Amino acid sequence: AMLRLRLLTWDVKDTLLRLRQPVGESYAAEARAHGVQVQPETLSRSFREAYGAQSRRFPNYGRSQGLSSQQWWVEVVKQTFRLSGMHEDGVVTLMAENLYRDFCSAHNWEVLPGASETLSQCCQRGFRMGVISNFDNRLEKVLSQCNLRHHFEFILTSEDTGFTKPDGRIFEKALRLGGVHPEQAAHVGDDYIRDYRAARAVGMHGFLLRAPRQSPEPEVPPEHILPTLSHLLTRVEK
Predict the structure, then answer these.
(1) Which residue positions does the secretion signal occupy (predicted)?
(2) Which residue, 86, 74, 70, is CA-closest to 28?
(3) Do 225 and 131 reside in the same domain of the chain?
(4) Is the separation of the CB atoms in 188 and 11 below 8 Å?
(5) At 172, which CATH number?
(6) Are both 148 and 216 inside the same structural domain?
(7) Distance of alpha carbon 130 from alpha carbon 67, whole angstroms
């Protein structure tokens, strides 16, 4: 059965873009530039702890608590350095502001294999396209810098909308913007709960990007699994 799809929505992180190197490596390089040696593994561990605590305390970049995502992130980075044993506040603040700026750019992000080609082919086939991402408002700039922005009619971030996937309201907003019924739309992402299951819950089709080595989720039929993005068009045009 040919899917009568008109709109494709996309997750970004680990679907279209990935970090060029682990967070700890980027943070360690910034520390070295200020004459401080810290192990990348230590920084990665501290980052996970700081990010987790901040996310629980101020969900979705503190949007409903009056924070900007810049304030939110700068605090995560400062706390990462503090947990790694650095307490010189002036240097820590400077490094945090530098890192916030660097993560806006293609300097820290790379396009996943097959992503550009797949997006171009989807546009050529006449699909309308949008992004649905639990990202802050830097996403527009990151996508532009990575030369992907032009593929999309709209970019919905959790910071802008106030809804975080798997909340169905961010998907419903995308359907309104695309002017389509849920069954005319499919969402592509790498997270079973936030992408695949959330899209299916509002009646959209879902495709789950899954590296072959990852164990498949039992409820996902094989035709909904994408071993790589290049498999998407054959699935959609079945």
Answers:
(1) none
(2) 86
(3) yes
(4) yes
(5) 3.40.50.1000
(6) yes
(7) 26
